[in-house]
Amino acid sequence: MDAAEPLLFDKAYVLCYRTFDIAEELDLERARRVLTEDSRRLKLSRENSQYIQLPNPPLAYELGRRPLALRDGPVTVDVTARLFDHGAVSIILQVPVVPGTSLKALTRMADELYDSQALEDLALELVEGVRRTIAPAAQAPHLWEQNESYTVIFAEHIRGNPTADELVTRADLARLLLGESGTVPLSPRESESVLQSRFSYTIQDLVVIDWNSAFVYEPSGSRDIPDLLEIANAQLLEFRYYDERLDAHITRIHEKVQAARHGWATLFRSPYRSLARQTLSTLVDLNEFIERVENSLKIIGDFYLAKVYESAVRRMRIPAWQAAVTRKQQLLAQTYGLLKGDVDIDRSHTLEAVIVLLIVLEIFFAFFRVFEH
């Protein structure tokens, strides 16, 4: 391929993911029965994909085609919803790239989509519809005010069929993933940082993963890698959600402990009984959540897809969020131990008081019987 020729994308899409937390848990089988649309479970198709196990594969169904307002005019996007058993739903908007689009034009397009308010509004409107549709399958439904976004620039055919090495050499993929459409070049260190997580299974395919976006060149058309990136993004959302929930509960404990005062009214009943029960309930919910999220994908072999997924997990900083949740979980468990200890002490005080009262009554009745005789 001539290095002087411009890179033109003849078949490509921009996959925009907006992931929301809508419930504590989703019953995917019940959701499948509720849906009138044609729904399908996620199944990886790539060779050796059997070494990645999805114990409860997410459920997807089509939401149809919707208009999306962009700077150059509205475009029609294909929309899919994907449901995860740990309570997340991903809205996937597939934005078409006009055949023959240059890399420079694609970079401008990506830059707009990364922060598009029109896209955010459309995703929020769609997730509200999904919530209504699958309401019977949602346990403890809600809609967390935050969401997690990710963008995959997916190319199936680039004119001239460049190899992975030619793409890395000729295309400024770092600018594409960062959405830098200006004229000032990026520093070599910044470009190197963005491109450090790149993979190729053959000389004709390429994956470059950044923390908020990825470039996938896959002539076969397989969507396995975007699907894995979506799963990782949903895991990140759940850890962020529970991190905030733990922060709120720890703050609530601090406020209630400060407000509660031991006095005569609480001599025989701890003011922390209700708080201890709430803390135990939160710990139980958290343990179930961590198990569901960690079991959403299991790797049992060291091969290409596993390496891509694990790189995405590191790039999205999921281990740091998971460590924060684990640390706060341990803090909450210690706090529960202290609260339970206070409740147990008050119970022992109550028991001791009852015993003393019984002794006094026994002595009183003994004296009463003596004076009667």
| CA distance, first residue to last residue | 120 Å
Number of helices: 10
Major beta sheet summary: 10 strands, mixed
- Taking Cα atoms only, what radius of gyration do you get, to the nearest Å? 28 Å
Q: Helical proportion?
A: 40-55%
- Please tell me what the overall shape is: elongated
The chain-level mean pLDDT equals 85
User: Strand portion, in percent?
Assistant: 15-25%
Structural classification = alpha+beta
Q: Tally the structural domains.
A: 2
One letter per element, helices H and strands E, the order comes to: EEHEEEEEEHHEEHHHEEEHHEHH
**Uncertain segments:** 263-268
Compute the number of strand runs.
14
Q: Would you mind describing this structure in some detail?
A:
The chain is α+β, with helices and mostly antiparallel strands. The chain has two domains: 8-222, no CATH class; 231-366. It is 49% helix and 21% strand. The N and C termini lie far apart (120 Å). The relative contact order is 0.14. Keywords: Membrane, Transmembrane, Transmembrane helix. The chain crosses the membrane at residues 353-371. This is DUF155 domain-containing protein.
